[in-house]
Amino acid sequence: MGYNSVYGRLTTQPYRPPEMAITDCERIMSKPPLSVLNVSVLTLTPLLVLTVVPVYGFSVGYDLFEWLVFFLFLWASGFSVTGGYHRLWAHRSYEAHAAIRLCYAIWGATAVQNSVFYWASDHRRHHRYVDDHDLDPYSIQRGFWYAHIGWILRDYNPNSGDFSNIKDLQRDPILRWQHKHYLALVLVTNLGLPLLLGYLHGKLWGTFLLAGLFRLVVNHHLTFLINSLAHYWGRRPYSEANSSRDNSLLALLTYGEGYHNYHHHFQYDYRNGNEWWHFDPTKWLIKVMTWLRLTNNLQKASRFQIEKAKVQRQFRRALFDLEHQSHPENVRHLLQHQYQHFIATLTEWGKLKQDGYQSKRRAWQKTVQSLDLRLRRVELHHRLKVQRKQWRMVLDELITHPGRSLPPA
Q: CA of 264: how far to CAs of 103, 126, 140, 165, in Å?
């Protein structure tokens, strides 16, 4: 995910070819100055949360209304970042009604992660140059602290306003409005609205401290964890081409954003958790809104593409392990044989499913053809099940008996 300064632009230094690469010493000496505003906001708000919020809680106390407003603000701003800033605008993984886009724009500003223009521009750059030391805005290669919050605290090229990678978003009048009035939206939603609700409730400061201050810090660091921890700790079942990880714990905390390895491999998918049991409430929200005709054109990777990515990753990992262990030569041949057969079956299965989708659209499709297609699908499903079982047996054998010769295929 992406985060930008509260008011100003933050990017990395422009690209330099290898012969002009700067050394670590030069990087340290050439660090830009600290951003006083960003450091102040991102330092003072946690300090107030750690001091004023608990002191008020022990001396006055928070009631049910104040906690309900806290969770309302937390979820509204959180889903506006994950469902709006991220999946709708940064990746265009679905389309949404103007009313939904307006809600996302307003509540997204409440999260104080800058306008959609800045956020989406940085995030697209992150995906394009992921893990590049200089071009990835919040590269984990520069350290956990840098990826989490450090990149925000200094004025990295503050005069830059390159929106060349979000020209599609600049055509949206709602986003142009949000960008123009971003500061006003931040002040109204983070100060005015919590104070107004507290005043109407009869306890001015309690609502502000929870829904305004405490909620803001939680919003910030949940987003930061995707930039840092989701590139540091977790599984990589789909690709090892970059540092992104799937982390189920993070998914629980970030409305489903924790399935980050999947997201980096299939960034156009409106889902981050692709399986139905994956905890991804952002995915569920988007899907429910399709039933209400508020969202449409949901993009998602096919089962064939997902399965193929997992098998390819397992094959590359197995080959790597073979190179660093003492296995007989027949093990490599068996592995390659099973891999080729599995991929061939997967490809045939994917093509058959696509043919099935097309045949449903043909009114003249004959009953005999439909029956033949169903029989082929059943037969292929059985073959795929057998191939998957054989593939797992080979992988398990490599893990449990690293030096043993395996029987021929």
A: 26, 10, 14, 18
φ and ψ at residue 83, rounded to 5 degrees: -85, -30
CA dihedral 106, 112, 115, 116 (to 10 degrees): -80
Dump pLDDT digits (tens) for 328-343. 566 666 666 666 766 6
Tokens of 177: 């409005």
Mean pLDDT of 375-386: 61
Q: How far is CA 39 from CA 34, 305, 312, in A?
A: 7, 43, 44
Q: Rounded CA gap, 337 and 339, in Å?
A: 5
Half-sphere exposure of 76 (CA within 13 A, CB side): 19
Q: Which of 228, 229, 261, 257 lies closest to 244, judged by CA?
A: 261
Measure Cα distances from 48 to 51, 190, 197, 244 in Å. Answer: 5, 15, 20, 33
Long-range contacts of 300-304 (CB under 8 A, 24+ apart): 300/266, 300/269, 300/270, 300/271, 300/274, 301/266, 301/268, 301/269, 301/274, 302/350, 302/353, 303/350, 303/353, 304/346, 304/347, 304/349, 304/350, 304/353
Q: How many CB atoms lie within 10 A of CB 150?
A: 14
User: Regarding predicted confidence, which is higher, 23 or 202?
Assistant: 202
Neighbouring C-alpha atoms within 13 Å toward the C-beta of 1: 37
295 in helix, strand or coil?
strand
User: What is the domain partition of the chain in residue ranges?
Assistant: 18-296, 303-400
* Contact assessment for residue 105 and residue 175, using Cβ atoms and an 8 Å cutoff: yes
Tokens of 115: 């306008």
The fraction of the chain above a pLDDT of 90, given in percent, is: 62
Looking at residue 252, its pLDDT comes to 96
Tokens 């990826």 belong to 147
Render pLDDT for 35-92 as a digit per residue (tens, 0 to 9). Answer: 898 999 999 999 999 999 999 999 999 999 999 999 999 999 999 999 999 999 999 9
- How far apart are the C-alpha atoms of 5 and 8, rounded to whole Å? 5
Model confidence pLDDT, tens digit, residues 346-377: 676 666 666 555 555 554 444 545 555 565 66
Beta strand pairing call for 95-96 and 295-296:
antiparallel
